[in-house]
């Protein structure tokens, strides 16, 4: 009883802010919710979930989000590892480099998005550079083929430093004796990285990739700001979370939004389980 009393504050917080909202979301997903003129619930069973299959914008959002995850997660993981290995190699002024690299991570996401919008603007920095070398200006934000890529570049640049710090902490825990033994066997720097560093960092890589997948699947604010909440141009920046936002706050379809949210949760859980199996998560 004493143990449960000590746990009670945490149990109450989890119950009120996690369990109850999930149960309410399950309830919403099975109902059509009328918000105007008083809240009313009409039970419709699994109709919200069957509607997901028929909604073309759901498939577009899933495709955009999957493309975003498939490119950003590997890129930010590799870049984070490269930066961490470089900073751990004893270069001069490494503390200043750490601060410089980490600044984008502690900067507001909205501020970074506005800065990159200015860079991508038709009168922005990127087109000024192109004009200086004699190349034509380009509508980066208005072209569906490159709009999502612009968000990818921004997020790779801004999130890799966070994972760099995690890798850096793990690198400093690797015993130096392992590298000395590898040198005695004739291993060069590249071989030590491939056969010593990367295998030892496997648990950290599992964590970095898992957190990266969860974070990228929840892309919202950058897409919202870039497209003014529309997911444009031509749905090129429409993500699953932005679609949930539109369903709730523009179309007032809370039940349908809850169904989309459960679809997203199921995808994230499935991918996390696959990652765990690939990385041998049960042994980490």
How many DSSP E strands?
Answer: 2
Which runs of at least 5 residues are low in confidence (pLDDT < 50)?
Answer: none
Give the helix proportion (percent range): over 70%
Number of domains: 1
Q: What's the Cα radius of gyration?
A: 23 Å
Q: What oligomeric state is this? A: single chain
Q: Which superfamily, in CATH terms, is the homologous superfamily? A: MetI-like
Gross CATH architecture: Orthogonal Bundle
Can you tell me the CATH class?
A: Mainly Alpha
Beta-strand content = under 5%
Distance from first to last alpha carbon: 33 Å
* Biggest beta sheet attributes: 2 strands, antiparallel
Structure commentary:
- There is one protein chain.
- This protein has helices spanning 2-29, 47-54, 56-87, 94-106, 109-120, 125-132, 147-171, 176-184, 189-200, 202-217, 221-227, 240-249, 254-278; strands at residues 31-34, 40-43.
- It is built from 13 helices and two strands.
- The chain has one domain: MetI-like fold, CATH 1.10.3720.10.
- It is globular.
- The model has no long low-confidence stretch (mean pLDDT 90).
- The longest helix has 32 residues, at 56-87.
- Keywords: Cell membrane, Membrane, Transmembrane, Transmembrane helix, Transport.
- This is Sugar ABC transporter permease.
- Belongs to the binding-protein-dependent transport system permease family.
- InterPro entries: ABC_transporter_permease, MetI-like, MetI-like_sf.
């Amino acid at each position: 009883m004493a143990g449960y009393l000590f746990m009670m504050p945490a149990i109450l917080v989890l119950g009120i802010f996690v369990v109850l909202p999930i149960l309410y979301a399950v309830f919403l997903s099975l109902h059509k919710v009328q918000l105007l003129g008083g809240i009313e619930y009409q039970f419709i069973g699994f109709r919200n979930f069957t509607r997901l299959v028929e909604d073309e914008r759901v498939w577009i959002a899933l495709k955009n989000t999957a493309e975003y995850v498939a490119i950003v997660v590997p890129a930010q993981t590799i870049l984070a590892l490269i930066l961490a290995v470089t900073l751990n190699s004893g270069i001069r002024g490494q503390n200043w480099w750490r601060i410089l690299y980490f600044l984008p991570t502690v900067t507001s996401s909205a501020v970074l998005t506005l800065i990159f919008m200015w860079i991508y603007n038709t009168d922005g920095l990127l087109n000024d550079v192109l004009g200086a070398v004699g190349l034509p200006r380009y509508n980066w934000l208005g072209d569906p083929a490159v709009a999502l890529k612009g968000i990818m570049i921004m997020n790779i640049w801004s999130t890799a430093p966070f994972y760099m710090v995690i890798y850096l902490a793990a690198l400093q825990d690797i015993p130096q004796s392992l590298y000395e033994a590898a040198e005695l066997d004739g291993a060069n720097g590249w071989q030590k990285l491939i056969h010593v560093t990367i295998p030892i960092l496997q648990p950290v890589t599992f964590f970095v990739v898992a957190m990266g997948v969860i974070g990228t699947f929840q892309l919202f604010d950058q897409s919202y700001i870039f497209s003014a909440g529309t997911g444009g141009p031509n749905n090129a920046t429409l993500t699953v979370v932005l679609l949930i936002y539109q369903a709730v706050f523009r179309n007032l379809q809370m039940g349908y939004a809850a169904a989309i949210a459960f679809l997203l949760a199921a995808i994230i859980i499935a991918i996390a389980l696959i990652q765990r199996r690939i990385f041998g998560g049960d042994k980490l």
